[in-house]
Design a protein that fits this description.
Layout (H helix, E strand, L loop, with lengths): L10 H23 L23 H15 L3 E6 L2 H8 L6 E7 L11 E3 L17 E6 L6 H14 E10 L3 H8 L2 E2 L14 E5 L7
Parallel strand pairs: 1-2, 1-4, 2-3, 4-5
Antiparallel strand pairs: 5-7, 6-7
Length: about 210
């Protein structure tokens, strides 16, 4: 039988897939009915192949508020590989700050001039108009839990920031985070919209509201 060579999905996998597609259709329907806001978390779906895991709404809001506070009036904020914080910042109408998103995923180019294509493998391959030490705070969430990824992202962070750093990464990266960025773990524990296998934490190098 020619069909023997065709791989068959288990009933469990099939059910999970159907549930995923149903959820996706419901989300698309909600976007239409709610007068879709391009800045809301989930408006761009996670791409797991790019190691994308969005924060929960509460976590993104908490980090966004912390960034605004740390940046100060008229402050400049850079979000490096942290699009869900960027999206939450854009929801903060009337707040006096500016923000840029540095991201590998070109779907975020819908945000126009605020989007900057970023590949951590080339940490200083940045536009000429992105001046050194021009951001009051940099929020970064390196896509991979490896020292190489953190070290390269750290080069970008140190180039951009005037001093303040808010790093989100795994608890296992505590030693490397201190080594490469001089940041310390906060009491605040960030949550994701989907549960991750690795314990996640926030790190800062200034007196923050996250303790």
């Amino acid at each position: 039988d020619d069909d023997d060579d065709i791989p068959q999905l288990s009933s469990h996998t099939l059910a999970a897939l159907q549930e995923f597609y149903l959820e996706q259709q419901q989300r698309e329907g909600m976007k239409t009915s709610q007068g879709f806001n391009q800045y809301s978390i989930g408006s761009i779906e996670e791409d797991w192949q790019l190691s994308q895991f969005w924060y929960s709404d509460e976590t993104a809001l908490c980090l966004a508020k912390e960034a605004v506070l740390a940046a100060g009036k008229g402050g400049r904020i850079a979000c490096v590989s942290a699009p869900s914080v960027y999206q939450k910042l854009k929801e903060q109408d009337g707040e006096d700050f500016s923000v840029r998103i540095l991201e590998y995923d070109r779907r975020f180019s819908v945000y126009g001039e605020e989007f900057i294509f970023y590949d951590y493998n080339h940490p200083l391959d940045l536009p000429e108009n992105l001046l050194p030490h021009s951001f009051d705070i940099v929020i970064a969430d390196p896509p991979y839990l490896s020292e190489e990824c953190l070290q390269k992202t750290a080069e970008t962070i140190k180039y951009l920031t005037k001093g303040k750093i808010l790093l989100c990464t795994g608890a296992v990266m505590e030693e490397q985070a201190a080594k490469h960025l001089g940041v310390k773990m906060c009491k605040f524990i960030p949550k994701h919209s989907r549960n991750l296998a690795n314990e996640f934490r926030c790190y800062v190098n200034y007196a923050s509201g996250l303790d």
